[in-house]
Design a protein that fits this description.
- By secondary structure, the protein is an alpha/beta fold.
- Helices cover about 30% and strands about 30% of the residues.
- The protein is built from nine helices and 14 strands.
- An eight-stranded mixed sheet has the order 5-6-4-1-7-12-9-13, with helices on both faces. Strands 2-3 form a two-stranded antiparallel ribbon. The protein has a two-stranded antiparallel ribbon with strand order 8-14.
- β10 and β11 form a beta hairpin.
Length: about 230
């Protein structure tokens, strides 16, 4: 398995914590948050990961180097902002596999990647999205799924109440970018997936695995309590 981690975030909402470091390097316990994500990948058998980086990316390279716990690391550097879609597409150039796992660098969702990959292949999908059930989807936006496991729509973040949310873990095929040409800079979710959802028909991988998005101060503090003790 090969993976891409989107690790170029500025951490604007965590400015007092991140200061002059990339958001995924924010300390949780005694370690950068990104270490926990890479641990999860190593422990599930991922052999190569490309870190899609931009702001102060040298900080990440100096910390991790080119190998982490036996897993090969590469760096896809955005010279100019590319958006999430552009960052993924550029990072794919460093990988030879047609199929890749993509993770957000400020979210930890401990889904079973082997099972998710099997679901992806069995469904013949170009894209599979890992979904998490939450008590209140208002902060994230809700995802609707058909009876046969296909993502059918994304609702606005203002939609409150319990529901499935996008957990920020994907498995996708290179063909997705060939079939849907996009400009140099674009959002993977807003510009590619949502407008073309009827044609892409993403598979849903619904999981109750541990999930935390540490992008806001409240959840960053929760990460200290729940993850920082590892």
């Amino acid at each position: 398995m090969r993976a891409i981690v989107l690790a170029g975030g500025l951490g604007t909402r965590l400015a007092r914590v991140t200061r002059d470091i990339p958001k995924p390097m924010a300390p949780v316990g005694s370690r950068p948050f990104l270490e926990y994500l890479l641990d999860d990948l190593v422990e599930q058998g991922v052999e190569q990961t490309v870190l899609a980086v931009s702001y102060r990316w040298e900080v990440i390279r100096e910390h991790f180097g080119l190998v982490y716990r036996g897993m090969e690391l590469g760096y896809s550097v955005e010279e100019n902002p590319l958006g999430t879609g552009g960052a993924i597409r550029q990072a794919l150039e460093s990988l030879t596999d047609d199929e890749v796992i993509v993770l957000n660098g400020d979210t930890r969702f401990r889904v079973g990647l082997v099972e998710m990959e099997k679901n992806h292949r069995d469904g013949g999908a170009q894209l599979t999205i890992a979904l998490k059930w939450v008590a209140n989807s208002g902060r994230f936006g809700r995802v609707e799924v058909s009876a046969d496991g296909v993502v059918t729509s994304f609702l606005e973040k203002s939609t409150t109440g319990p529901g499935w949310i996008n957990g920020g873990v994907y498995i996708l095929n290179n063909s997705l970018f060939r079939d849907f040409p996009m400009p140099e800079k674009f959002s993977f979710e807003l510009d590619l997936v949502e407008p073309n959802i009827d044609r892409i028909q993403p598979r849903a991988f619904q999981s109750d695995a541990y999930f935390i998005d540490m992008g806001i101060p409240e959840d960053y503090q929760r990460a200290q309590r729940e993850i920082g003790v590892e």
